[in-house]
Each structure stands twice: as structure tokens, then as C-alpha cells.
Design brief:
The protein is mainly alpha-helical. Helix content is 56%, strand content 4%. It contains eight helices and two strands, in the order H-H-E-H-E-H-H-H-H-H. It has helices at 7-14, 30-44, 59-73, 85-95, 111-125, 138-152, 157-165, 170-186; strands at 53-56, 81-84. It has a two-stranded parallel ribbon with strand order 1-2. Strand 1, helix 3 (59-73) and strand 2 form a beta-alpha-beta unit. Helix 1 packs parallel to helix 2 (30-44).
């Protein structure tokens, strides 16, 4: 369980029960530490496998974590909640869509689907400021970057539209309102 772990890593494995956030650079043993901690919690009997949630950024790390727990503990790996952050959020939205006021059959678009969606609706947007004749679909990447950033900052289409409407410079307002229309359509 502790083979190859240095003192700080061992401390993380045996720290008091409860949430633990491990932040370290690439290749520093995060996955090994988390897998060892999960195994320790399972062996101590403090938690049932279904009460453990481990989140990571990549699918590869999540899969590796599951495999390590399985090797260390031997059982229960399939009952654990080991996900990527995005995978967990997607599952949560699907499981609780109705309570959140979302459609029951919620579906998230990947980048290619988002791009194709915008491509189909470009004429409907009637772009004046973000249209480029030399690269007619180049604005799509810009819209998608903006929308993802707005969502990361928890700015809704309605909030952005209100911001755009409140701009005093007419040209700046028109540009922002064009973005607001694209954001609303996408949403």
C-alpha cells in the first residue's frame, strides 16, 4: 500500500477521513496516492465503496486509478465513484435533470457537434460584425470559445445580453448584441 511513497504522500494516504484535495504536477504520483488512500479507506471499513468519489481530469487517470485500486484491494473497484470532472458533472446532470429544470433526455454536444450546429445556423444569425468573407465559418470557433468561457464564469445568455444592451458605445453594443444572439441560439 505504501511502497514507493514518500512522507508527504503517506500523510495524504492516512489523513483523517473526509474530503481530500491533492494538487501536484504531472508525474508526481497523484494517482498512486489517491488509489492508496481509497484502498486504505476500504480496508479500514470506514466507508462503503459507493460512498467514495474520486475525480480527476483525464479518462486515462480515472481508468488507471480504478485499476490500481483493484490491484491493491482486489474488489469493489467497479462500485467506486471514479470519474473525470466532466464525466461526473455529465452524469449528475443526467441523473438530476428534471429537478434542475432541464430536459429529461439531456444531451451534451461535443466540439464537432457544436461547430456543426453553428454552421447550420449561421445564416439565421445575420452577422454584421463577426462575419468574414475570407473565412465565413471562422467566427464559429470564436463564438464557441466565448460561450465556453462565459459558462466557466457562470455568465448566462440572459446576463450577457443585459450587459450588451447596457453598453454605451453603439458599435460596441451592436457587436456584443451579435455575440449575445449567438450565445442565446447556442443555449
Amino acid at each position: 500500500l505504501l511502497e514507493g511513497l514518500h512522507e508527504e504522500q503517506r500523510e495524504a494516504v492516512f489523513s483523517a477521513s473526509g474530503p481530500l484535495f491533492i494538487l501536484a504536477g504531472a508525474g508526481t504520483g497523484k494517482t498512486r496516492v489517491i488509489a492508496s488512500r481509497i484502498t486504505h479507506l476500504l480496508q479500514s471499513g470506514d466507508l462503503a465503496p459507493a460512498n467514495i468519489l474520486a475525480l480527476t481530469f483525464s479518462r486515462k487517470a480515472a481508468q488507471e486509478m480504478m485499476e490500481r485500486v483493484e490491484r491493491l484491494h482486489g474488489t469493489y473497484a467497479d462500485e467506486l465513484g471514479v470519474f473525470t470532472f466532466h464525466g461526473f458533472c455529465h452524469r449528475f446532470l443526467q441523473d438530476h435533470s428534471i429537478e434542475l429544470g432541464l430536459p429529461a433526455r439531456l444531451r451534451l454536444l461535443d466540439h464537432a457537434e457544436s461547430w456543426a450546429f453553428f454552421r447550420n445556423f449561421l445564416p439565421e444569425l445575420k452577422l454584421a460584425y463577426h462575419w468574414n468573407l475570407a473565412d465565413p465559418t471562422g467566427c464559429i470557433d470564436g463564438f464557441l470559445r466565448f460561450i465556453h468561457r462565459a459558462k466557466d464564469e457562470l455568465v448566462s445568455p440572459r446576463e450577457y445580453a443585459a450587459y450588451a444592451k447596457g453598453l454605451s458605445d453603439p458599435q460596441e453594443r451592436a457587436r456584443a448584441e451579435e455575440i449575445a444572439r449567438a450565445y442565446r441560439l447556442y443555449q
